[in-house]
Structure formats: structure tokens, C-alpha cells
Design a protein that fits this description.
Elements lengths: L2 H19 L5 H9 L13 H13 L3 H24 L4 H9 L5 H10 L2 H21 L3 H15 L5 H13 L2 H7 L2 H23 L1 H10 L9 H31 L1 H8 L15 H21 L12 H4 L2 H7 L10 H28 L10 H10 L7 E4 L2 H10 L4 E4 L12 E6 L11 E3 L11 E8 L1
Parallel strand pairs: 1-2, 1-3
Antiparallel strand pairs: 3-5, 4-5
Helix pairs in contact: 1-4, 1-18, 2-20, 4-5, 4-7, 4-17, 7-8, 7-9, 8-11, 9-15, 11-12, 13-14, 13-15
Length: 471
């Protein structure tokens, strides 16, 4: 089977497993189920592109767990394709496929992205598309590629704000090289900038009108809740950065080291060991990668020193370090004929199967050990119980729990679903259904709905819900 066939089969299996394992939703899925009820220029602390794409999928195929999973897995597959396209310009096709597939060895891409991420998945995909287009532009500059670069950059800035950091690092690496600078210093670059700006302006105006919602909440994630001194904050930020990079790239780098041994070390060394200039007018890719990682280090250092960032999450590395396979294998194309390359293929295939099995099995496993999570919520049974008590699936549904609100949107697609913001004001539309999950601390009432968790064993504590129906 060709590589693209395995890719389609793998992500189709993920979609099938997600649909079969639970009708409930993870938090990111639930947010999309609620946000897609309206088209807006922004949603909370996130740009709108992912929600727009999800809205289109819902319009075509309906609101369901299947369509939620379909979009995310299609985007993940697209990320691997874009990385393969970038690799294909630097190495033989057989090695390019292995290089792209090795992203599975990065836990945040191989595991977390499939488990419960949305915007970060799209961010990685658009960043990979940006890299592929820019590398094609370096290989053969032409007007269509400049326009495509502007278009992809516009998409990136509508995906997640951290894309601006990736784009800045990439542009700085290009501008700092004599062999790459000329590509950017073109009149077509101005047109590319114009294309990106036109795409982003409406959202930019929305951000100005919702500054606290869009920016300050995002900035709050970067700093700790307790103020610290400069030296202490610098230590916290740098140590958190090192741990995040190791958590993201460590398993991938360790696997390559174990498979290729000293040949892997020789390939790594080419990143900082000056190479002979390429023949003709070619681009020195090793120098480009050195400049990229140097610029990335300076960005992170500036965030820590001047931005007072004290914590980095490993998933924040996704748009910056997804290109590690491109850089590593691009500096060692001779690995295409390495005797141990089939071993790496087997490792990647094994990891792929393990990820698929564990992601599917974690829901019943959590229930059986009496530690249910969002996907163990009995939302289908809850919907049936609400229908049995007189709710017809229309009007407005309000819940103070975002995950439950999104799940109820899937169960009642004809209803309008809102998340209670705590202001005490109920919508005027009728019928109105209020539903909230209960904790064990609240006393039980006769009208409470008590339902067993999905996959729970007999004797486990059930899920409890309270509702009110205003006809």
C-alpha cells in the first residue's frame, strides 16, 4: 500500500474509534459544538478559522461526534502531507515518508493532538503548509507562490495567535541569509503581505473590540498567578522552556538516536557544523535551519526576559518544532539507504497502533477504575431521560458546564444551546431547559437524574444531573 493509503487508513481508524467509544465530548470538541451556532469574527480567546471550518462541516454532514472527529483527523492528515511535501524537496520519496511519519513520535502530535486538541491541530497544519510553500518558493520563486504564501499566512493568523511567532522566526531566518534574503526582497512580497492583511483585518477589528476576551486571557496563560522577582521568574521561565522542549522532542530524538546510533549524531552535528556552500544558486538548508533555531531561541528568551513568561507548555512547541524531521532528515538524505531505516518504520508503525488502541481503550479503562472523565458522561442516556420527562428537543438549553452544553448540542441539534456565564439572567425564549451536573457535595433531590457512567462497573458511583424545564 502506498504511504498515502496508510495515512488515510490510520486516521479513518481514529474517526471510527472516536465515534464508537463515546457519544460524549471532550472540552475542545464541546466548545466547537457550541460556538458553531453562530458565525463570528472571533470566539473567546481564539481566532475564528477552526470554528468556521467546523461550521462548514456541520452544514454539509450534520452535527455529530463523527463530523467533529472527521475535521480534526482530516487536518492532522493534512499536516503529515504538508511535512511530506517539505521533506520531498530535500530527500528521496521513501525517506520523506518516514520523516513525516516520525512526527508520531512527538507525544503532543502523536497522542495529544488526537486526544483533545483543536486549534493547536489546525495551527500545526497551517504552519506545516507555510513551511512547504516557503520551501517551494525558495526552490523556484514565482508570483503564484508569493500569493499562496500570503494566503497561507492569512489563514495562520486566523488560526491561533502563536502563529505570528512561528512566522516571525521563519522570516527572520530567511532575512538573515544571503541566499534566502533575495526571495523576500521582491515586489511580489508586498502583494503577499496585502493578501494576508486583507484576510486578517476583520478579525483584527474584532480583537480591538474584545481586547480583554481575546488578548488578556491569552497573556494570562503565560505568567503565573503569583508575582515573582525577575531572577526567580527568569529561572522559572527558562527551566519550564527546557522541560517543554524535552517533553516535545525528547522521545523523537531518543528514538532516532537508538535506531541510527552514531549516524544520528553525525546528522545532528551538521546543524552547527558549517558545510560547504551549495553548488550553483541553491539554498544552504543547513544554514537556514541553524538560523531558524537560533531565532527561535531568541524569541523564547525574549518572551522570558521581556514578556515575563514563567511557564511554557509542551503543546506550545507544536508550531515551532514540528519541522524537526524536515531539518534532521534533510541534513542526512543518505539515511534513505541506511540498513536500519526499516527498523524505524517498524517503530513508527508500532507506536501508531499503540496510540490508536490506547486512545480507544482509555474511556472504558477510566470507567473501570472508577475515575470517569468527560467521555464517560452518559449524555445519550441523559438525552433519552430528558425526552421521557417532556423535553421535545427545541427551544433553548442552558448549562453551567461547557462540556455538557456541547454534548447536548449534539444530542439536540434543533435546540439553541448556551453556556451560563453566571449573570443570573435566563433567556426569554421558551421552551427553556436548564441542565447541570451535580457533585457529591450537593444533596440529592427526587427530580435529579441519576445515570451510570459510560462503561462503568456495577457498584460505581453514578453521574447525577439536575434539570428544570420551562415550557
Amino acid at each position: 500500500m502506498p504511504p498515502w493509503g496508510w495515512l488515510l487508513l490510520y486516521f479513518a481508524a481514529h474517526v471510527l474509534g472516536r465515534v464508537l467509544v463515546s457519544p460524549a465530548l471532550e472540552l475542545d470538541e464541546a466548545e466547537q459544538a457550541v460556538w458553531t451556532q453562530h458565525l463570528q469574527w472571533g470566539y473567546g480567546a481564539q481566532p475564528p478559522l477552526y470554528t468556521w471550518l467546523q461550521w462548514v462541516v456541520f452544514q454539509v454532514l450534520g452535527v455529530s461526534v463523527f463530523t467533529l472527529s472527521l475535521l480534526k483527523n482530516a487536518l492532522l492528515a493534512s499536516a503529515y502531507v504538508c511535512v511530506w511535501l517539505a521533506c520531498r524537496m530535500l530527500m528521496p520519496a521513501s525517506l520523506a515518508a518516514v520523516a513525516a511519519a516520525s512526527m508520531l513520535l512527538m507525544p503532543q502530535i502523536g497522542w495529544e493532538a488526537s486526544r483533545d486538541l483543536t486549534h493547536s491541530v489546525l495551527l500545526t497544519t497551517v504552519s506545516a503548509a507555510t513551511l512547504a510553500v516557503v520551501m517551494a518558493l525558495l526552490h523556484r520563486p514565482r508570483p503564484a507562490l508569493y500569493l499562496l504564501t500570503g494566503f497561507v499566512a492569512g489563514l495562520g493568523m486566523l488560526t491561533k495567535y502563536s502563529y505570528v511567532g512561528f512566522l516571525a522566526v521563519l522570516l527572520l531566518a530567511l532575512l538573515a541569509g544571503r541566499d534566502t534574503r533575495a526571495v523576500l526582497l521582491s515586489r511580489w512580497t508586498l502583494l503577499a503581505v496585502a493578501v494576508a492583511a486583507l484576510m486578517v483585518v476583520p478579525h483584527g477589528l474584532w480583537v480591538l473590540q474584545h481586547w480583554n476576551q481575546a488578548i488578556e486571557s491569552t497573556a494570562g496563560k503565560l505568567t503565573g498567578k503569583v508575582p515573582v522577582g525577575f531572577v526567580h521568574g527568569l529561572w522559572l521561565g527558562l527551566s519550564s522552556l527546557v522541560l517543554a522542549v524535552l517533553a516535545f522532542a525528547g522521545p523523537w530524538a531518543l528514538t532516532l538516536g537508538l535506531v541510527f546510533g552514531r549516524d544520528a549524531l553525525r546528522a545532528w552535528s551538521r546543524w552547527w557544523r558549517p558545510a560547504a556552500p551549495p553548488a550553483g544558486a541553491g539554498v544552504d538548508m543547513q544554514a537556514l535551519w541553524r538560523r531558524y533555531f537560533l531565532a527561535l531561541g531568541l524569541l523564547f528568551l525574549a518572551m522570558t526576559v521581556f514578556g515575563e513568561v514563567t511557564r511554557f507548555k509542551d503543546r506550545w512547541m507544536m508550531p515551532f518544532l514540528f519541522l524537526l524531521p524536515v531539518a534532521f532528515f534533510g541534513c542526512a538524505p543518505e539515511l534513505a539507504g541506511h540498513a536500519r531505516l526499516p527498523r524505524l518504520r517498524r517503530v513508527i508503525a508500532t507506536v501508531a497502533v499503540l496510540v490508536l488502541v490506547l486512545l480507544t481503550a482509555r474511556v472504558p479503562y477510566n470507567a473501570l477504575r472508577d475515575k470517569p472523565d468527560e467521555l464517560n458522561q452518559p449524555v445519550r442516556e441523559l438525552a433519552q431521560a430528558l425526552r421521557a420527562r417532556g423535553y421535545a428537543g427545541k427551544g433553548t438549553i442552558v448549562s453551567n458546564d461547557r462540556t455538557l452544553a456541547g454534548a447536548l448540542r449534539v444530542q439536540f441539534p434543533r435546540a439553541h444551546v448556551e453556556v451560563d456565564d453566571g449573570d443570573g439572567i435566563l433567556p426569554a425564549e421558551r421552551p427553556l431547559l436548564w441542565v447541570e451536573p451535580l457533585t457529591d457535595a450537593l444533596p440529592a433531590l427526587p427530580q435529579d437524574l441519576v445515570l451510570p457512567y459510560h462503561f462503568s462497573a456495577s457498584g460505581d458511583a453514578p453521574a447525577r444531573y439536575r434539570y428544570a424545564l420551562l415550557p
